Structures are given as C-alpha cells and as structure tokens.
Amino acid sequence: MLELYKQQTKCLVALDSIIFGFDGEELKLLLVKRGVQTDHDTWSLMGGWLKPNESLDQAAERILFELTGVTGIFLEQLNAFGDPSRDPVERTVAVAYYALVNVKDYETKISDTHHAQWFPMQDLPELLFDHREMIKIAIERLRYKAAFHPIGFELMPEKFTIPQILNLYEAIYGSNFDKRNFSRKILSTGLLIKLKEKQKGFSKKGAFLYTLDNEKYKKHSDSFLNFIPNPEGLV
Amino acid sequence: MLELYKQQTKCLVALDSIIFGFDGEELKLLLVKRGVQTDHDTWSLMGGWLKPNESLDQAAERILFELTGVTGIFLEQLNAFGDPSRDPVERTVAVAYYALVNVKDYETKISDTHHAQWFPMQDLPELLFDHREMIKIAIERLRYKAAFHPIGFELMPEKFTIPQILNLYEAIYGSNFDKRNFSRKILSTGLLIKLKEKQKGFSKKGAFLYTLDNEKYKKHSDSFLNFIPNPEGLV
DNA sequence: CCAAAAGTGTTATACGTACACCCATGA
DNA sequence: TCATGGGTGTACGTATAACACTTTTGG
C-alpha cells in the first residue's frame, strides 16, 4: 500500500478567498494587486499556500488574517479548482473559500495592510488565472445560500436599517424587490431587534436602526427560510 | 515569484466518490474493500489519485469508470478534505465527489469488477479515514440539493413508478410524505411522461410506469422547485 | 414648501397540508 | 373474497404577490 503512495505525483495546494463586502450601497469584492512580479494591471483573489500542519479551513483562516487582519468572520469552503493548466507556473490545486464581511467595520484595517482594494462586483479588473471563474461560482453560491439562510446579515454592520438589507439583497440577486413585502418577510424571521435610534444623514426622514438578535441568529443560522420573494429564476 | 512556488510543500491529491444508489426500495452506498493491505473489515469509498494532466472532474470521472465501468452519470464535486491527520500514511488532500446511480441498471457490471458492494445507508460498515464524515456531508448535500432540483431522477431507472419516487424521497429525507400530496407535486413539475405499461409483480394492482421527459429535464435541471413537502427540518 | 426616502395595509391568488375512500388484482 | 398496494379529490389555512398613499424632515 505504501508504495502506492510513493508513485503518485504531488501537487501544490493553494487557498484562494472570494471576499464579499457590503457598504450599505453596493456589493463589493476585495482584491489584491499580485505580488512583486511582471503583471501590471492584474489583480488577484487573496491567496496563499497550504502549510504542512494545518487543515484547509485553518489555512484559509490564517491567510485571510495575514492579508487583512480580519478574523472570526463567515468563511466557508466553496469548491476545489484543479484544471492542469489553471496556473501556468506549476500544477496547483486551489481550494476556494468565500467570506462575508461588512466593508465599513474593516475598511481602514484592510486597505492599510496589503494594498487590498474593494471593487464593485459590476466593475472588476482583469484577474489572475481562473479567479474570475471562482468569483462566478461564488456569487452563485452566495445567491443559493442567501435564499434560505440568513447569511446576508454577515455582510451588515452591527447596526443597520431595513432599506440597507433590501439594498444588499437587491445587489446579491441583481433585481428589485417590493420593499413592503421584503420588510415584512425580514421582520417575520424574528431575528431583528428594533433600536430607538435612527440612521440620519442619508435620507431626510432617517431610517430606524436594527440589530441582530444573536441568540436567535445562532439557533436559526442553519434553518431553512425562504428569504427572497421569488425563488424562480435562481441559480 | 517563481521562488515562492519552490518553497512550498507539495501534497498528494486524492479523489473519493460517494456513490449513492437506489434500487426502488432503499438508498444505498457503493463501497469497496480496501486494497491488498492489512485492514480486515475496513471498507472504503471509491478513490484514486489525481494524475498530472487531468482536471479534478476528469480524475473523478476516470476513477469512477475504472472501478465500476459506469460513465456519464451524475457526478458533482462535494468538498475538499484536508485535515493534516486524515490519512495517517501521508499528508493527502482529498477532493470528494458524490455520484447518483440507479442500482439495477449497473448491478452486475459493478459487483463483478472490483469487489464493490452496495450497503444500505442505515447499515454501513467500518470505514477508512474520514470517509464517514464525507458520507455525512454528502447526504446533507443530497438532501439540500434534492429539495430544489430534480436530481432524484438520476437515481431512478429508465422507467419508474410514482411509489418508487416516493420511496426514494422518503429514503433521502428519512421521513414519510403524504402520497397524495407527493404525487401531485411530482406530476406538477411536468417532467414525467406516463407510459401505457404497468409495473407488475410487486403489487397486485400494478403501478403505472413513467419516464423522464428528457427535453424538459435538461432545461429544468437547474431550476428551482420545492420538491419536498416540508422544507423546515432540513440541513 | 418641496423633494427624497421611510414606513405602512389590504386584497386576491396560489400553494401547502390534512385527510379517507374506492380500485384492481393475485392469491 | 380478501388483503395489499395503487390511485384519486376536496376543503381549509397560510404565504405570497401586487399594489399606492402618508409621513418625516433637510434643504
């Protein structure tokens, strides 16, 4: 049996993270300018190599932390990519993760560190290797998952307004939802706590702020609700 | 940049397939007795190594074919598993796939080849490495996916009866559904064509056979229907 | 006072669910 | 003739979708 192992070719294993961010307006992606090499205007997903003594989840978490200083956020395995020609330098299998983070809370921390930059989903630069394909699959997964799991809140700041959540879902699905039906549905989850404060500055009237009921959120985080108005047309 | 590649540790990459089968009665898993080595009663998922010039999908397909002679069936990537201690012999990252196949059509072909054996989901033997964990995640994925995509039909033979599909869904979800509501729902997809023949032998009355409308199935295979009566309690 | 966004209610329809009886047939 | 599994219909309640006006307030 052991000989069977010896004969096999080994392979580099990389981890790449698709980091989604939301700033209250737009859905964004965090990209880094690729290292110190030739590529001029090529941007890249956050990535790194698997080390000998860590699991895939640990490696993804470590790399995210090293490059952004962010930790403890939503980070889930997406897919493994292993086309033999995906990395022209050397055969590499990449395990992609996707992360959800709210832009505002981490803005300065992130930008300062590694020349990372938030790009609007609609307006991405040229990307390394198969990173665009990874992003495409990540947005599909995000849509799929957000339809039934309340993971949208992972992208919201501590305090947020209903119109902001509406914006987020509209950004995720690239379509418009009826605000009355939407707010009724979101509130019916019972996951939101209405605060006394209002968000001022954006609109003249101001919108009430809400916060997540973390108790309920943890319990319900893998429950199965229908979060979007029209499930047809998905995926 | 190239030096960055050289420093990195390489890793074996394995592919393992969770092969679900249905025989009209029970949901089953196809397992093989592990090679020519010490383990006495340890069974294993179908697996093999990634070769230098193939993609992950290709490798999974090749390995499935080599071990079962089966090709062209539903085969989808599940997850990558990379715990450093998952394979005690050597650090290995395993990319798991899950496959759906109907037992009857391939029964003899499969059993003859590589000492493979179908096990009822409820009654699995001791398994290699983290294979049980893989199976657990695969059944979750199957439940998740079958709830909204008509992949259940991948497990059915060419011709099948409504009670058989009901059996399948009950096996997948481990619960009972009302046969009247279920058949109404399945038929309302418009994916089934009723044949003139009946399945005889099992029941005295005999049940009408149906076949998939492959045209519609291809179109709708990534549509988004609610296939199971009660979406709560899932995942 | 006006523009811009927030907030709120009703109604019609579709869908999900619960439920029970008759049918066909082989033994 | 009877036991077994196959097949069908209805009524009720809930969830969804479509829809428009009033409120607040900064400029």
In words, what does this structure look like?
The structure is a homodimer of 235-residue chains. Chain A has 235 residues and is of the alpha+beta class. The first copy, chain A, has two domains: 2-146, Nucleoside Triphosphate Pyrophosphohydrolase; 150-220, Arc Repressor Mutant, subunit A (Orthogonal Bundle), CATH 1.10.10.10. Chain A is 32% helix and 29% strand. Chain A contains seven helices and ten strands. Chain A has helices at residues 2-7, 56-68, 103-114, 131-146, 162-173, 179-188, 214-220, and strands spanning 10-22, 27-33, 43-44, 46-49, 74-81, 92-102, 116-120, 159-161, 192-199, 207-212. In chain A, strands 1, 2, 3, 4, 5, 6 and 7 form a seven-stranded mixed beta sheet that branches. The interface between A and B is large, with 44 and 45 residues. Chain B binds a DNA duplex (27 and 27 nucleotides) through α6.
Distinctive features:
Arc Repressor Mutant, subunit A, alpha+beta, 29% strand, DNA-binding, 3-stranded antiparallel beta sheet, elongated, homodimer, 2 domains, 7-stranded mixed beta sheet, Nucleoside Triphosphate Pyrophosphohydrolase, 235 residues
Produce a short descriptive summary.
Two copies of one chain form a homodimer. The first copy, chain A, has 235 residues and is α+β, with helices and mostly antiparallel strands.
